[in-house]
Specification:
It contains two helices and nine strands, in the order βββαββββββα. By secondary structure, the protein is mainly beta. The chain is elongated. It starts with 6 loop residues before the first strand and ends in an 11-residue tail after the last helix. It binds zinc ion. The site of zinc ion (ZN) has 5 residues, from loops.
């Protein structure tokens, strides 16, 4: 069967950025599993895989615009240092990726860019912002999502949740 909306897809893949560095990967023993068409991957990534079947190999590039976009200066934020409270030594360091919450309880990850006595500068841009992404890999399995998987919004069994 072919990949289409509401199919569960298992992949092995490698994600490279322009300098050739592999920044993400999944192999056949630990495949990446997702439900197609639910926004669990980049929309352009879902689109590229539409119509593929088990055993198909793929290799394509997504431009930064089709991936995580360009860096946005508004996503670099100065935060009073007291917000970080009594974070253990070694956690609040330049380059650290830290979870933060907004006033409505949404969680974001930010990267520490600068630490001053009174404030900390955090970058909430996605780590792959501004990058063209090269994906290559192979389709390992395609099946219909179960009603329960669609209800939960995630894959059960291999490559997914066990509960
Ligand atoms: Zn579940």
């Amino acid at each position: 069967m072919q990949i289409s909306n509401n199919t569960v897809v298992l992949l092995q893949y490698e994600l490279r950025i322009a300098n050739g560095e592999v920044v993400d990967a999944a192999d056949a023993a630990h495949p990446f599993a997702f439900i197609h068409g639910l926004g669990q991957t980049l929309p352009a990534f879902d689109e590229k895989l539409t119509g593929m079947s088990v055993g198909d190999e793929f290799s394509f590039q997504l431009s930064a615009e089709d991936a995580y976009g360009q860096a946005n200066a508004a996503d670099i934020v100065t935060i009073p240092k007291e917000i970080f409270g009594e974070m253990p030594d070694g956690e609040l360091v330049i380059g650290a990726e830290l979870p933060m919450q907004d006033g409505e309880g949404h969680q974001f990850y930010g990267i520490v860019k600068e630490i001053q006595p009174q404030f900390v500068v955090m970058d909430f841009n996605h780590p792959l912002v501004g990058q063209n992404l090269d994906f290559s890999g192979k389709v390992l399995a395609v099946r219909f999502a179960t009603a329960e998987e669609l209800d939960h919004g995630h894959v059960h069994g291999e490559g997914g949740h066990h509960h």
